[in-house]
Amino acid sequence: KPKVLGYRERAKLCSNPITQRLFEIMEKKRTNLALSADLTDSKQLLQLIDKTGPYICIVKTHIDILEDFSEDFIEKLSQLASKHEFLIFEDRKFADIGNTVVHQFSGGVYHISNWAHIINAHTVPGAGVIQGLKMVKTQNGCGCLLIAEMSSAGNLATGDYTQATVKMAEENKDFVIGFISVSNLSPDPELVHMTPGVQLECGRDDLGQQYLTPSEVITRRGSDVIIVGRGIYQAPDPAEAARQFQVAGYDAFVARLTE
Ligand code: 5FU
């Protein structure tokens, strides 16, 4: 069984500055919690992020669900990222030919390459999607996660598709920093695993989302980061909920370290 490394050791082994920084933040703040910030009003979203900032290592955005997007929102989000020390992950799920994703990543209304530290991509188009994204000049030296598995019922990212995705990650480690997955797919300490579909109780929503607990995801399945949306922002006290997920996620990691 491979030895489980602490976050500081992982940081030292990472040649990519984004994963290095991520593991340093995780060590310093003792958190493997990513907030899935899926509110549609920018003022409410910034308030949520400011309140939960102390407990998280990443804010994951869906920038295209904001009803009132502005440059000012990006400015304030970036200020909060500096204030609380977290990385910004835009969950755009690029999934087109290389030439198209170049424009989707760098241009349009959102100019994602100017502000995101982390992005992600489906591998269904083949390696061209990675080659395209990699060409774009970025502000923060952005790293890319490949969607190797999904949390939703009946998804097709399984078996050979998942394995081919792992291979694409291993072949593109200058830009690919890991996976969206619901299990550990590679022992390489430079590749980070992030898992959505997390709540404090197992269950599902009405539209196919399936939830696992922090201990199932981190201790048993060997993922690195839990991604939590409604479990935090729909809670009566989101800051308190974030604190609970931080503790549950970190305790689950300590349990894996010491088991
Ligand atoms: F790639 C994936 C996936 O497989 N499942 C997901 O749920 C991404 N997600 C995202 O994580 C989804 O788009 C939401 O932004 C978030 C989960 O939110 P929840 O409210 O915790 O269910």
Automatic annotation (TrEMBL):
Its EC number is 2.4.2.10, 4.1.1.23. Residues 32-245 form the Orotidine 5'-phosphate decarboxylase domain. GO terms for biological process: 'de novo' pyrimidine nucleobase biosynthetic process; 'de novo' UMP biosynthetic process. Pathway: Pyrimidine metabolism; UMP biosynthesis via de novo pathway; UMP from orotate: step 2/2; Pyrimidine metabolism; UMP biosynthesis via de novo pathway; UMP from orotate: step 1/2. It catalyses: orotidine 5'-phosphate + diphosphate = orotate + 5-phospho-alpha-D-ribose 1-diphosphate; orotidine 5'-phosphate + H(+) = UMP + CO2. GO terms for molecular function: orotate phosphoribosyltransferase activity; orotidine-5'-phosphate decarboxylase activity. The active site is at D91, K93, D96. Substrate binds at D38, K60, S151, Q209, G229, R230. It comes from the Eukaryota. Keywords: Decarboxylase, Glycosyltransferase, Lyase, Multifunctional enzyme, Pyrimidine biosynthesis, Transferase. Homodimer; dimerization is required for enzymatic activity. In the C-terminal section; belongs to the OMP decarboxylase family. In the N-terminal section; belongs to the purine/pyrimidine phosphoribosyltransferase family. Bifunctional enzyme catalyzing the last two steps of de novo pyrimidine biosynthesis, orotate phosphoribosyltransferase (OPRT), which converts orotate to orotidine-5'-monophosphate (OMP), and orotidine-5'-monophosphate decarboxylase (ODC), the terminal enzymatic reaction that decarboxylates OMP to uridine monophosphate (UMP). This is Uridine 5'-monophosphate synthase. The chain holds residues 215 to 473 of 477 of the full protein.
